[in-house]
Amino acid sequence: MIKMKKAITNNQSGFSLIELVLGIVVVSIALVGAMVSLSNIEAKSVHVEIVNRGTNYANNIMETIINHRFDENIAIPWSADLGPEENAFREYDDIDDYNSLTWNSPTMPGYSGTSFINYVIDTDWLNNNPNITSYKTVTVVVTHSVLDIPIVIKSLVTSGILTFGDDDDDGDNDDDGDNDDDHEDDDDGDNDDDHEDDDDGDNDDDDGNNDDDGDNDDDDHEDDGDDDGDNDDDEEPCGECDGKVNSLTLQYTGSQSELIRVEQRSQGTIFENTVESGSSFTLQGQDNQNTLGPEITLYVNDSENTDIHTSCSQPVYVGSVFGDFIVTAGTSRNGGSLCEEQSGDDDGDSDDDDDHEDDNH
Known about the structure:
Layout: H1 2-10, H2 17-66, E1 101-103, E2 111-119, E3 135-144, E4 151-158, E5 245-252, E6 258-264, E7 268-275, E8 280-284, E9 296-300, E10 303-308, E11 321-322, E12 325-332, E13 336-337
Antiparallel strand pairs: 1-2, 2-3, 3-4, 5-8, 5-12, 6-7, 6-9, 9-10, 11-12, 12-13
């Protein structure tokens, strides 16, 4: 009985203290390696998240910029100086207002953005061009303290008007394909230097060519045969609304005297007075360029009546009607005095018709 019990005792097995210590050491080393790997994965995930958020931030800045018009001027020549013409950020109305602008957002802590606007040509738009063209690039650079390399995105913006590849002195391509120095296409297909086509079929380079009405329109000192007897060259030049409105005279057409209030987005109320029906009042620009800013809102007895886009993004002429107001006079920064909307001749017919009658009848 004693021998059997001793045999059973000798057959029992287990881990010694040394084996347990070695096992703990091996497991600890494995856990440390796993933790280091997890830490690296987490760091890379944070880096990827920062890059993704920065890229989204750059795209948002880009969208903000390219949703504006190509230039402060609505036609050639484009602005030579790329930068803001307005005083406040909320007044920016074209893409080059955002040149060299720093962007910081409270919702994007740690990020900083900068936008750059440059002229380029369409065949090499990755490199800046010193000349004024109808193409601009918008470059947005976003940085973060964690990023060794900044996030850069670039977009090409075009005005839709080509300014390269033509040989005309006036900067446009003639419809007849010739490279003449005139300012409009000759109907007879010749390449003469006069400024309008002679109906008698000759190519007169002198100033005495014969027009339909028998007068010499090209000279600067002779009567042009207008019904009022004056010379067209004596009339004050006018132009389309261009580069924001400097001044605007409005006639109120309401049925009775009312309190008129005019508000400008950046400066608040710029006019408030009682105006009689048929009476006019004038608004003057008050910023550093003497313009009215991008938009004004007119109220009649505290009720909004109409808006006028004084940024010239929409046509403004003498005679334009906005709500209960008619434009009777005005000036713009680049266009000078505002023209009236186009209408026919005083005698009801066009001077370019073929009736060969004198307009002085």
